[in-house]
Each structure stands twice: as C-alpha cells, then as structure tokens.
C-alpha cells in the first residue's frame, strides 16, 4: 500500500494503493500509522508522493455506498484524524503532487509545508459540494489556511478543480515543476527545511498553524456532528450514487 525509501536525511513516502490511491478505511489507518513511524525515525524531513499520473483520487465513494451509514460513521473520524495528523506533523513535510489530486488527495497535498505539482494534465481540487457532501471542520480549515483568500469561496463553495497553473494562482500548490524534476525538487525543498534546527522548525510550525488548530478545536465538536449527519442521510447517499454513476463508471 505504501513504500518508504530514503535519500540522505529525507524519507520518501510513496502511496501505491491500486492505480488511484483511493482513500478507504484501511488506507487512512495505514497512512496515519506510517506517518507516526516516520515522525519517530531519524530522518529530518518527509516527501509524500503518489505513482504514475495520480497522487490520490480521494475518498473511495463506492465503498461508502456499500458500507452505508455504519461505514460512514466509522470512516469520517478516521479521515479527519489522518488530515489533522499530517497537517501538524512536526517534521518538514513536502508534497510531490505527481498528477491528479482530487478531494482527499488535494487535502493531503495541502497539509504539506510546501506542495509541488507536476506540470501537465493533472487536476487538483476539492469538489465535495458537487459530490453532494459538506466538509468536516478540519478539512475546511485546512483549505482556508492554505489557499489565497480571494479564491477560497470558489474552491470550497464552487467545488472547482484546477490545472497546475491555476492551482498555483489560487494557492493550492506552491510551485509547478516539470514531471521529471518533481521528486528531486521536492527532496531539495525538504532538505532546505531540514537544515533548520528540528526543535526550532517544529515550534515555529506550531506557531504558524496555531490559528488553524484553534479554529478546529473550537468548532469541530459541534459542526462535525451536524456535518457527519449530512453524510449519513439517504439524500446524500443518493447524491453520491448519482455522482459515481455519472463520473466513475464512465
């Protein structure tokens, strides 16, 4: 499901679950576990990437339709924990977005201290509202903290997806590089951050991301209860089924 390789003091965490790195329960649990282990390792930085032309296609919607309410109730907190853990990783974290990064895949990329996207035909964005589901608080606040405020409503309320240069303009990624240079540029970015004294980097990162953390902690208990209830309704399941029929089964 994942492969870990090392380049000097930098560990490369490569997602390789199927062809699209869709995010089901096992994927999220195992990726969280992998990050915990990397946080304790002797490495000074982490690069997260995918394989082929897909970084991650996001949540496994057919699995949600199959598992229905029981699965959704168990899955959403696990997904939120995964994104939270990556967003507050104390080590430098670089996303090498090698292709499509949709919904949960986009959110994973946005957790990074710096996100680089390969030039080409890849698309990135969070089209949750177009699928028919709202955002848990941690996911919404991550996008708010990451993106250009001018584009925030378009990204979230409009459910837009972007080609690499559009993603750079709106702040979903920090740089666009040629595909053959993506990994080496990501490693270089991780090495640059890793040159900073680790405890100073971790403390400064906590300071920078504290407003996001406070917003999550202040609102998640109340708003996530309402949000998760939306995900469990028959209307939402019907909307997901319609989206799957129109897009994933083409």
Give a structural overview.
The protein is an alpha/beta fold and 250 residues long. It has a single domain (2-194), classed as 2-enoyl-CoA Hydratase, Chain A, domain 1 (Alpha-Beta Complex), CATH 3.90.226.10. The protein is 57% helix and 16% strand. The strands form 2 sheets. It has a 6-stranded mixed beta sheet with strand order 1-2-3-5-7-10, with helices on both faces. A hairpin with a 2-residue loop joins strand 1 and strand 2. Helix 1 (25-40) packs parallel to helix 2 (61-87) and helix 2 (61-87) crosses helix 5 (137-146). The longest helix is centred in the C-terminal third of the chain and has 35 residues, at 198-232. The protein is globular and about 50 Å long. The chain starts with a strand and ends with a helix. 41% of the residues are buried.
Entry keywords:
single chain, 250 residues, alpha/beta, 2-enoyl-CoA Hydratase, Chain A, domain 1, 6-stranded mixed beta sheet, 4-stranded mixed beta sheet
What topology does this entry show?
Elements: E1 2-7, E2 10-15, H1 25-40, E3 45-49, E4 54-56, H2 61-87, E5 93-97, E6 100-102, H3 104-110, E7 114-118, E8 124-125, H4 128-131, H5 137-146, H6 149-156, E9 161-162, H7 164-170, E10 175-177, H8 182-194, H9 198-232, H10 234-248
């Amino acid at each position: 499901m994942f492969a870990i390789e090392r380049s000097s003091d930098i560990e490369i965490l490569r997602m390789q679950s199927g062809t699209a790195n869709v995010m089901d329960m096992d994927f999220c649990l195992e990726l969280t576990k992998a990050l915990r282990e990397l946080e304790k390792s002797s490495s000074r930085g982490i690069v997260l990437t995918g394989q082929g032309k897909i970084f991650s296609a996001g949540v496994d919607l057919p699995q949600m339709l199959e598992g229905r309410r029981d699965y959704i109730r168990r899955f959403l907190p696990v997904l939120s924990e995964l994104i939270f853990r990556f967003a507050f990783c104390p080590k430098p974290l670089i996303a090498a977005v090698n292709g499509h990064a949709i919904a949960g895949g986009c959110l994973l990329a946005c957790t990074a201290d710096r996100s680089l996207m390969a030039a080409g035909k890849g698309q990135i964005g969070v089209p949750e509202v177009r699928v028919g589901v709202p955002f848990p608080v941690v996911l919404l606040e991550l996008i708010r903290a990451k993106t250009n405020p001018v584009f925030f409503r378009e990204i979230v309320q409009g459910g837009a997806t972007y080609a690499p240069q559009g993603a750079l303009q709106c702040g979903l990624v920090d740089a666009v590089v040629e595909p053959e240079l993506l990994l080496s540029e990501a490693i270089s970015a991780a090495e640059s951050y890793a040159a900073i004294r680790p405890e100073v980097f971790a403390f400064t990162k906590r300071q920078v991301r504290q407003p996001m953390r406070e917003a999550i902690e202040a609102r998640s208990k109340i708003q996530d209860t309402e949000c998760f209830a939306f995900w469990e309704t028959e209307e939402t399941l019907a909307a997901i089924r319609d989206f799957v029929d129109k897009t994933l089964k083409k």
